[in-house]
Amino acid sequence: MTNTNTTARPASDHSSPNPLPVDTVSTLSEEIHDNISRVIVGHDEAISHVVTAILGRGHVLLDDVPGVGKTMLARSIATSVDCEFSRVQFTPDLLPTDVTGVNVFNQKTREFEFRPGPVFANIVLGDEINRAPPKTQSSLLEAMEEGQVTVDGTTRQLPNPFTVIATQNAVEPNRTYDLPFAEVDRFMKKLHLGYPDPDEESEMLGRTVGQHPIDSLEAVTDLETIVRARETVANATVEAPVREYATRLAGYTREHAHIGISPRGTISLLQAAQAHAVSQGRGYVVPDDVKHVAPVVMSHRIKTTDRERDGRSVVEDALESVSVE
């Protein structure tokens, strides 16, 4: 089942937009964060990670038990940006063409016409993505990596910007499918929300009794501003020592795990660090930016054979063992 608000805007041309000042992007990230916080109580760090992932041209996987606000967080970020938003409810009977689109024969014109799927939007919410079989999940691979979709031999560009925010059901293994590792690797960040503490839960109940705050939430920025903010992030300076530090962290995971992070993962690490740096008001990346984003960027890309040691443990060891030179 799909739910698309409107027809997605055409993909923009390849000319580079004018970047915004770093201070402007820092303020923008705070405004988006504060707007989302009107709906999502607590989880400030997770909200910041989602905002900076969008600014860093990344995709986000929200993995947790049902009912902790994963879908609401995704809806809040989409509402905060005045852009095209679509939602895909992943189910076992969902087909790849239900996501990407399909060619339909027009009886009047006697020609095939392409009907775009919900992936043709700026922000796409994939709700409970692991309820669909791997074949359907894989329909997002090309879109997430290359910003395009190929159907029946014809390639079509997706709108710019394009971000996937997917939620994953973590408690029903008999009714869900594992995500292909190639798809997991395409998510810049994997986040866990967890349960709120008693004070946060009490505040949340106070806000949601009666009208839910998501119903009155309004956009605080527009599509053009996000595109220009992304350009600012992409221009953040990453000096050689920082690049070398990221490379050594990646190398550590490859030496101390069955599967370490891929070169794509190292790129995502630095892109996320750029976004974090700009959100802090800096146009350059320091090692602390890398350390801040490493656990949510690297952990889900690592596979171990030791049940007592997961990807996050490997990343923690890497951060402790690998020195900044």
Helix and strand arrangement:
Elements: E1 2-4, H1 22-37, H2 44-55, E2 60-64, H3 70-80, E3 81-82, E4 85-89, H4 96-100, E5 101-106, E6 111-116, E7 123-127, H5 134-137, H6 141-146, E8 148-151, E9 154-157, E10 163-169, H7 181-184, E11 189-191, H8 198-208, E12 221-222, H9 223-234, H10 240-255, H11 263-279, H12 287-298, H13 311-321
Parallel strand pairs: 2-10, 2-11, 3-12, 4-7, 7-10
Antiparallel strand pairs: 1-4, 5-6, 8-9
Fill in the keyword field for this structure.
single chain; 325 residues; alpha/beta; Rossmann fold; Helicase, Ruva Protein, domain 3; 2 domains; six-stranded mixed beta sheet; two-stranded parallel ribbon; 13 helices; 16% strand; disordered N terminus
Beta fraction of the residues? 15-25%
Global mean pLDDT: 88
Distance between the termini: 51 Å
Which secondary-structure class do the elements indicate?
A: alpha/beta
Shape: globular
Low-confidence stretches: 1-13
The CATH superfamily of the largest domain appears as: P-loop containing nucleotide triphosphate hydrolases
In CATH, what is the class of the largest domain? Alpha Beta
* CATH fold descriptor of the largest domain: Rossmann fold
Largest sheet: 6 strands, mixed
CATH architecture designation of the largest domain: 3-Layer(aba) Sandwich
Q: N-to-C SSE series?
A: EHHEHEEHEEEHHEEEHEHEHHHHH
What gyration radius follows from the Cα positions, in whole Å?
Answer: 20 Å
Helix proportion range? 40-55%
Number of domains: 2
- Tell me the number of helical segments per DSSP (H or I, 4 or more residues long): 13
Strands of the largest sheet, in order across it? 1-4-7-10-2-11
